[in-house]
Amino acid sequence: MENRSQIMASSDPVQEFDSLRAQSKFVFAVFYRGHWCPFCIGWLRRLAALSPAIVAAGGTPVIVTAESEKFLKDTREASEYDRKAIVDTQNLLAKELNTRGLVSVAISEKNGYDHGMAQPALLVLKEDDTVLESWAIVPSTMNLGGAKDRPVLDEVWENVEAQLKGKSKVHETYTTTGFFKTVWGKIFG
Asked: Considering only CA atoms, which of 161, 180, 181 is closest in space to residue 170?
């Protein structure tokens, strides 16, 4: 079970992220929209399943959201993700990672998000700032405003794992999650 520091809103999300990176071989960070997004919940379920392997390889999985802390419990229950979380309602971390040239997390206007909603993104960053993977959605009508067409995290992990072992990436491109696969998984588990 987590300690309270893994659950609370982050007072300094950039410092918290940098601290996590410094304390582990790499950070496997996943940005998600909110507890209400079935695509996000499905993505976080996969991260939850991959988390033991990430930790065994010396990494730290972490989820990042601009959604209010009061919804984190709902997200955790729906996704079964129980590890580190950074609640960043001002999107300070997303902006900083963009400034550093690591990942360009899109920020969209959305009711309930005073400083905008961070769209799906992922960053796998080693403690020495080597980027193993970086991806961010560009919201459009075709991907339901940033909801779908995310890379399958199992494939991302296979690439990260290969790179950690000094090997070439396994996947040149990723399979993406689509609308029907998400709905099918929601209905039939």
From this structure: 161
In eight-state DSSP terms, residue 63 is: E
Average pLDDT, the chain: 87
The model's pTM: 0.86
- The residues that bridge with 85 in the sheet, in sequence order, are 63
- Measured CA to CA, the distance from residue 40 to residue 156 in angstroms comes to 16
Q: Kindly give the parts of the chain with pLDDT less than 50.
A: 1-8, 143, 179-189
The whole domain housing 92 covers: 4-188
* Spatial CA neighbour of 93 closest among 62, 60, 52, 49: 62
Total structural domains in the chain?
1
Q: What is the CATH number of the domain that holds 127?
A: 3.40.30.10
Tokens of residue 140, six digits: 């459009």
Q: Where are the beta strands (DSSP E) in the chain?
A: 26-32, 59-65, 84-87, 107-108, 117-118, 121-126, 131-136
Report residue 158 as tokens.
């296979």
